[in-house]
Amino acid sequence: EAEDYARAASLRDELKRLTETAKVQVAQANERFYRAFASGKIAEMRKAWGDGKHVRVIHPNSGCIVGKEQVMTSWSHIFKVGGGGLKIELEDVEVHVMSETAAMVTCIEFVDAGPATGKIVATNVFEVQNGEWKMIHHHG
């Protein structure tokens, strides 16, 4: 009613700044996940993931694995089978911030595990936990 265009523009600019900041933070969280994936170190992978019963992962050719500890067990198995030092390259990375506490990244993974290689379309979902963006869902 007040037609305060200056205030409206200020709010618009602040929302844009917050969204851009969140996009950078989510992109960094996504990079942390892929560094952990490439390292083959479960301790690093654990740092990238959030906590909760809603945490889940769907690996290629597997069902949905639910719960932080079960998800970490699945990554331990992948690291044992694939060994450390995986090479992972990403293409078409898109960061989508849905709210102040929820975001999604879509990308294409090119994974080289030595004798096995693959191209995988992935969706990664993040939420803010204790002030930090953490992965809560990975679907490859």
UniProtKB/TrEMBL annotation:
Protein name: SnoaL-like domain-containing protein
Domain SnoaL-like: 26-140
Listed SUPFAM superfamilies: NTF2-like
UniProt superkingdom: Eukaryota
Protein's organism: Chloropicon laureae
Coiled coil, from the record: none
